[in-house]
Structures are given as C-alpha cells and as structure tokens.
Amino acid sequence: MLRTIFLLSLLFSLSNASVQDFCVANLKRAETPAGYPCIRPIHVKAKDFVFSLGIPGNTTNIISAAVTPGFSAQFPGLNGLGLSTARLDLAPKGVIPMHTHPGASEVLFVLDGYITAGFVSSANSVYVQTLKPGQVMVFPQGLLHFQINAGKSPAAAFVTFSSASPGLQILDFALFANSLPTELVSATTFLDPALVKKLKGVLGGTG
Ligand SMILES: *[C@@H]1O[C@H](CO)[C@@H](O)[C@H](O)[C@H]1NC(C)=O
C-alpha cells in the first residue's frame, strides 16, 4: 500500500514537472535571476521560438569583432530553458580577447572563414585549434578562452551557452579598464607599471 502511494506520488510529481513546456519571456516585466516571468500560453506564437542571427554585426571597433546576442531579452522563447545563443563576427585581424563565462560552457560552430580558438585549463594546459566552416569547438565553463580570425576574409560563427546568463569577464578589461591603482595592478600581475599605464590609457582605465 505504502509502495503504491509512493509510486503514485512519484508519477504525479513527474507529470506535474512536465506540465510547463516553456516560459516565453514577458519582456514588459523585469528580468529576475530566474529569468523573465512567462507570458500566458494562449499568447505564445511560433515566432517566439525563432530568432534571426543572419545579419553580421558591426565590426568597426577596436577589436574588429562583434557579438550579436540571442538571449531571452532578444529571443523570448529561450527564457527558462537554461540556454542562450549569439552570433560572432570577426573582420580580418578581428579578435575576441581572452575572456571567461563564469556561468556557462560554450559551443562554437563556424559558419564562414577560419577562426583560431583556444582555452586554458585550470592546470594551465593550452588547447588551441584553427577551425574551418562546419567545425564545432566546446569551451568548458569558467575557463579563459579567445577567438581570432585566422584568415584574410571575414569569419562568422554561432555560439550557444549552457545557461541563460553565461556572464562575461574580459581579462584585459578586468585588469586595465577600471580604477584599480597602477601600483596594485603592477604588483599583482608582475607587469611593468609603464605598460599598465599604457593599457589603462587604451582601455579607459584610471589610476
Ligand atoms: C559601424 O560602427 C561604426 C563605428 O561605431 C559606425 O561609424 C558605422 O556607421 C557603423 N556601420 C553600420 C553599417 O552601422
């Protein structure tokens, strides 16, 4: 008898868990750490589950690269699914500088051109590969990684993250684009103070 009750309650909780198939973002409400509140299912349309990443981003900038996000705010159907996506464009010589996503692993799928990509493990092992169209590379959660255009023509890729909020910390910005005093940056990185000052100048840091 107890066993039957247990099995029934398990079945009930399982079926209950699958009742809500999706939670299309209500963008009129504020985003919370758990995502946006859902719009009512009756208002959900097929187009909520579709997003276009077909247009290259503008790469006229200091890194000759652009990241076009497809997060819940742009792509409401993703809300609550623990995923996000983006398009990466790299002009010739374009670079996505060394960075980490504290909250997600990343899968990168090359669409066009050649991209040299790599990451550094916690053991400081280096994994670098030059990728061609159709190849996919995965970057484990939290590890420092980068992408560089390895060819003479523009390169593009789609990326998918294993979280709705992958987070982003760019190493050079963390070191040189804020008010951490030059002497502390220098003392904690072993870099020459003149170099620290120069990089602060380029990246908009002070101190
Ligand atoms: C790309 O960005 C640059 C620099 O902000 C700007 O001057 C240019 O007009 C933009 N190009 C397009 C097509 O939006």
From TrEMBL:
**InterPro entries attached here?**
Cupin_1 (IPR006045), Germin (IPR001929), Germin_Mn-BS (IPR019780), RmlC-like_jellyroll (IPR014710), RmlC_Cupin_sf (IPR011051)
Q: Which residues form the signal peptide?
A: 1-17
- Classify the main location: secreted
Task: Provide the residue positions that the database annotates as binding oxalate.
Answer: 101, 106
Pfam family name, one: Cupin_1
Keyword Glycoprotein in annotation: yes
Positions of disulphide bridges: 23-38
Please give the Gene Ontology molecular function terms for this protein. Answer: manganese ion binding
Superkingdom, taxonomy of origin:
Eukaryota
Cellular compartments annotated = Secreted, Extracellular space, Apoplast
Q: Which Gene3D superfamilies match?
A: Jelly Rolls (2.60.120.10)
Q: Where are the transmembrane segments?
A: none
Q: Which residues form the Cupin type-1 domain?
A: 51-197
Note the coiled coil stretches, chain numbering. Answer: none
- GO cellular component terms, A-Z: apoplast; extracellular matrix
Binding of Mn(2+) occurs at: 99, 101, 106, 145
State the UniProt keywords alphabetically.
Apoplast, Disulfide bond, Glycoprotein, Manganese, Metal-binding, Secreted, Signal
Per the similarity annotation, which family is this?
A: Belongs to the germin family.
The name this protein goes by in its record: Germin-like protein
